[in-house]
Amino acid sequence: MAASRSRELLRSFLLVCVIIVLTELTIMVLLEPVFLDDHWTMAFVDSGTLILVCFPSIYYLLIKPMVRNLVEKAESDRALKEMQATNEFIRQDAAERIQNETLERSKADARIQFQARILAVVQQGVVATGKGGVILYWNRFAEWMFGWTEDEVRNQTLAKVTGFTSEAASSGLSGFGAVKGWNGEVKAVRRDGSSFPAYLTCSPIWRADGSVAGFVYTFIDITDRKSAEAAIRDSEEKYSTVVENSPTGIFIYRNGRLEFGNQRFFQMVGRSQNDLARLDVAEMVHPTDWPTVRELWRSRLAGLGATQDYECRILHAKGETRWISGRTALIRYGGEPALLGNIQDITERKKAEQEVLDSREALHKLSARLMSAQESERQRVARELHDSIGQSLSAVKFIVERAIDEQIEYGEDKQGQTLRTVVPVIQGAVEEVRRISMALRPTTLDDLGLLATIAWFTREFEITYPHMEVERLIQVEEFEVPDMLKTNIFRILQEAMNNAAKYSQATRITVALRQVLGDLQLLVGDNGIGFIPGGPLRHSSGGGFGLVSMRERAELFGGSLILTSSPGEGTMIIARWSLPEDATS
Question: What CA–CA distance (Å, rounded) separates 488 from 476?
């Protein structure tokens, strides 16, 4: 196209040149005779004529085509640039699309590779098949599980290689079951012929048009789970055997009701297993004991560290009241805190204990009566000695002394000297009777009171045992000591001091009678050699067991006796009684 345009311009240029030459010759021929003498005029006319004739020709033949060609060239260049820009945009867009497609493809490839690596290392046998059941994919764990490599099982059916039961294949791995998806336990077979329980899951692979392209199967070896289930069943059977045949009642208490009870429990409460849902614990426990048991169980469920053991009464279905000993343990039952209870029937033991208590109470009353009788007898004998024998001896002494006086008046003989030797003997007998009488029952105890008797007894004790010093700390008044305690306090003091004199080898004895925190307290302590309290008991001067006698006397009116001693540290006996409020105020 450019060559044709060049030829056209050349022809136009030549044509213009020919026209100019011809026009110039014509003007020279026509005008030279007219302006022969005037050269400037001729030149002006020549030039004007040439311009008037040649310019239109040059314009139409040369300039206009040239301008048109330039315009067309400019439009062609602009169109070419637009085309190049369009081509560049198209090229860049195509390159970007290609780059995006390449990136997406690489991501998809990476995702496929990652999924392939996951399927290769997942701890489950993963198998993919076509719709007809032919194996297309077989991961490494499936190779380890069944013993077949992927190349060996390719193009074989899954049921043939894994050997799972035909029932599973017919019910879940074909027809509607396979399309819908299926899972269940199957018995799979390894390459070596050994079988194992497996959990099989079948899922369909769908095409974009909604049709089924194939299936994905996952195998999980559940041998360990089956073994664990069997162990759990054995453990449950053992537990059930132990619980149901336990000689004690076992129950589970949660949310205010009984959740479980063994056979022995229902026998103890007189109900049956069928009554479990309707049982109300408050109706089985004695109304007097239920608030205590309920509070104890509440504290145990709250984890407040309440005692595990308790005793209470239960109401048998036949109306009989029985005693039980219970123990509770905090457990988790159904995801919630609960109490595991264990109860034992102790009715017979309680009866035996009550019989022992009754017997002890009877012995206590008998001991009290014996002591009271002993004191009465002591008082009677002391009175008889004082009033009868003492007075008789005094009368004999008086008669003898009178006889001596009469003999002196009429002249003393040898018989009078003999009578004089009888008088000291009679006087000694009188004093011995008085001493025995005071030992049996001091008259001061009835006439002057306890405090005077203690003062008298300690003075006599120091006279009898001059090597022992007695320290008296009397910090109460006579009216502060109840009358019923006075005799027992004196007897405990008498027994303790006599024991100290015989066995302690002490040089000092402390006697204190005082009130301590509303209690009346008698304290007898010495600085002697001491002894081991758990050793053999010592006998008192009265022929009874001294410590036992003192303790019985202390407990006779609701008191207590404490003995502390150790070798080389002396001995201390403390007897205490609670006083009525009106006595301490």
Answer: 17
